[in-house]
């Protein structure tokens, strides 16, 4: 069988030795403390900040990562809850910095209208290594279940458990990068024992992922797209009516079964849920433009939810 990834053998799932070999290749390239925790400290005058978990263990190289959530003030239980998450995949940089930029620039915008929760960086270890997985070669964004084997996912599930079914809107900030096909796709195929790997097409532009189980949410997704269109370009389909293999249901909009796939955007059972996807490798954008696109998406999502305040959909129990 052809060897398409330098670790493991095609057709054979990784065992402990292959995962350790992969882990040995992951080097710290930036600082969660300097980039995220310091930025959050500067926001304490505007937000209530609390640590909701500590991520640590042998695979984390002896480091401990405090996981932080920002809550708007004053919190009012009579108001709808809006959740913003970033950095589920640590290498998707504008998810983290877009969330922080939103928190820095728009903290007081919703006083008296909504409760806002912001979790800027769900996966701190992966942020430092510019990677998709955690150190145990687990993708957090397929593991948002109560008994998750990914510490990062389990911690967020515990954080939102008290408000499940009460969240009106949840937007999860992501990127689709060229490395999805040059590194992370082949690594996943090798880890899972696929015999071959065929590269897909990376869409050039911004798009969103809605919920297959909530088709009435399409106007919500379209509102996000229209807001971001004023900031950056929207991804076209691949010529066959698809983006990353999924049918395009409106310009820049595809759907996934969020809860079935245990994706972050499905963790609260919010009536309005969306995953954003920025393309930072486009020659048409800059890092700051990517951050601005994420902020535009968050603000549009909150605005739409406030204008259409239907009761949150009942949140099914985790399986």
Helix content, binned percent: 25-40%
Net shape: globular
How would you classify the quaternary structure? single chain
Give the strand tally.
Answer: 10
Average pLDDT number:
95
Output the structural class. Answer: alpha/beta
The named CATH superfamily: Zn peptidases
Number of domains: 1
Characterize the largest beta sheet: strand count, sense, and whether it forms a barrel: 8 strands, mixed
Total of DSSP H or I helical runs spanning 4+ residues: 8
Strand content: 15-25%
| Residue windows where pLDDT falls under 50 for at least 5 positions | none
And the CATH topology?
Answer: Aminopeptidase
At the first level of CATH, the class is Alpha Beta
Spatially, the strands of the biggest sheet line up as 1-2-4-3-5-10-6-9
Q: Which terms summarize this structure?
A:
319 residues, Aminopeptidase, 8 helices, 17% strand, Peptidase_M14, Succinylglutamate desuccinylase / Aspartoacylase family protein
Walkthrough of the structure:
This protein has 319 residues and is α/β, with parallel strands linked by helices. The protein has a single domain (16-307), classed as Aminopeptidase (3-Layer(aba) Sandwich), CATH 3.40.630.10. The protein contains eight helices and ten strands. It has helices at residues 16-24, 32-41, 93-105, 124-129, 151-160, 179-191, 218-229, 287-307; strands at 48-55, 65-71, 81-86, 115-119, 167-175, 207-211, 242-243, 246-247, 253-256, 272-278. The strands form two sheets. An eight-stranded mixed sheet has the order 1-2-4-3-5-10-6-9, sandwiched between helices. It has a two-stranded antiparallel sheet with strand order 7-8. A hairpin with a 2-residue loop joins strand 7 (242-243) and strand 8. Helix 3 crosses helix 8 (287-307) and helix 7 packs antiparallel against helix 8 (287-307). 46% of the residues are buried. The mean pLDDT is 95. This is Succinylglutamate desuccinylase / Aspartoacylase family protein. Belongs to the peptidase M14 family. InterPro entries: Peptidase_M14. Residues 31-319 form the Peptidase M14 domain.
């Amino acid at each position: 069988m052809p060897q398409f990834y330098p670790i493991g053998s095609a057709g054979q799932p990784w065992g402990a030795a292959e995962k350790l070999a992969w882990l040995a290749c992951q080097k710290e390239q930036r600082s969660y403390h300097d980039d995220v925790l310091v930025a959050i400290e500067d926001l304490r005058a505007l937000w209530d900040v609390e640590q909701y978990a500590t991520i640590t263990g042998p695979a984390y190289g002896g480091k401990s990562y405090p996981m932080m959530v920002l809550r708007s003030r004053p919190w009012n239980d009579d108001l709808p809850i809006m959740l913003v998450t970033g950095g589920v995949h640590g290498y998707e940089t504008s998810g983290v910095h877009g969330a922080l930029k939103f928190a820095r620039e728009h903290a007081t915008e919703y006083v008296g209208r909504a409760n806002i929760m912001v979790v800027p960086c769900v996966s701190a270890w992966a942020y430092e290594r510019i990677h998709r997985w955690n150190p145990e070669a687990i993708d957090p964004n397929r593991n948002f279940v109560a008994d998750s084997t990914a510490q990062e996912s389990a911690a967020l599930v515990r954080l939102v458990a008290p408000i499940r079914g009460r969240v009106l809107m949840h937007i999860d900030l992501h990127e689709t990068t060229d490395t999805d096909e040059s590194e992370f796709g082949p690594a996943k195929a090798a880890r899972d024992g696929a015999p071959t790997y065929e590269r897909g097409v990376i869409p050039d532009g911004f798009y969103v992922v809605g919920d297959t189980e909530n088709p009435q949410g399409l106007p919500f997704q379209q509102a996000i797209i229209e807001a971001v269109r004023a900031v950056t370009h929207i991804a076209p389909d691949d010529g066959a009516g698809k983006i990353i293999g999924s049918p395009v249901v409106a310009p820049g909009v595809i759907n996934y079964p969020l809860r079935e796939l245990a994706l972050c955007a499905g963790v609260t059972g919010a009536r309005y849920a969306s995953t954003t996807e920025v393309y930072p490798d486009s020659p048409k954008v800059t890092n700051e433009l990517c951050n601005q696109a994420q902020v535009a998406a968050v603000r549009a999502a909150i605005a739409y939810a406030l204008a259409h305040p239907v009761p949150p959909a009942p949140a099914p129990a985790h399986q």
